[in-house]
Amino acid sequence: MRSPAPLCFRLLLFACGLAVGGTGIAQTAPAAKSATAAPVAPVAPAAIRAADPAGERVSTPAFNWVLPLFTDKEGFRSMTLRGSEVRPVGRDIAVTDLSITTFSGDAAARVDSILLSPAAIFYPKENRAGGEKSVRFIRGDIEINGSDWTYDHAAKKLSLRRAVRVTFQAQLNDILK
């Protein structure tokens, strides 16, 4: 069994519009089986159009994308990003059905939080994500919903600008005192 390509190499290939299938981070779209089939133009989500206002064609999408990120020194799992479809947009990645799972960053690999959004842009150099569409953030005894959002993994900070709703699933004693 051959070992998978290092993460930085796979990201470089993906940013260039190439995808590493099987043991890699994504599987590219299958080629058309028939030459007589009419090509279907993909409908780009709002996140892609916002990141590419000139309307330039982006490369072939990758499906069922997974990107695990690890801590620098110890190599423990820090965050895992998933998407049903991704497209490179410049040096960033447009993701459909984004799912970000953050972990404790230690040997226990405990899940800290889960962030879900139908369309977003992931900025790999800054470990940030954002989007104009809705977002759902789930952590322990709190759930946050909203739209027009930004998530900064280094700061562990989620910023929401519209339609914010916070649900506490814990008892809040003496909150009005």
Textual characterization of the structure:
With 177 residues, the protein is mainly β. The chain has a domain at 58-168: Sandwich (lipopolysaccharide transport protein A fold). 8% of the residues lie in helices and 47% in strands. An 8-stranded antiparallel β-sheet has the order 1-2-3-4-5-6-7-8. It is globular. The termini are far apart. The relative contact order is 0.12. Residues 1-44 have low confidence and may be disordered.
Short description:
Helix content is 8%, strand content 47%.
Secondary structure layout:
Blueprint (H helix, E strand, L loop, with lengths): L6 H9 L11 E2 L17 H6 L10 E9 L6 E13 L2 E12 L7 E13 L4 E12 L2 E11 L4 E12 L9
Antiparallel strand pairs: 1-2, 2-3, 3-4, 4-5, 5-6, 6-7, 7-8
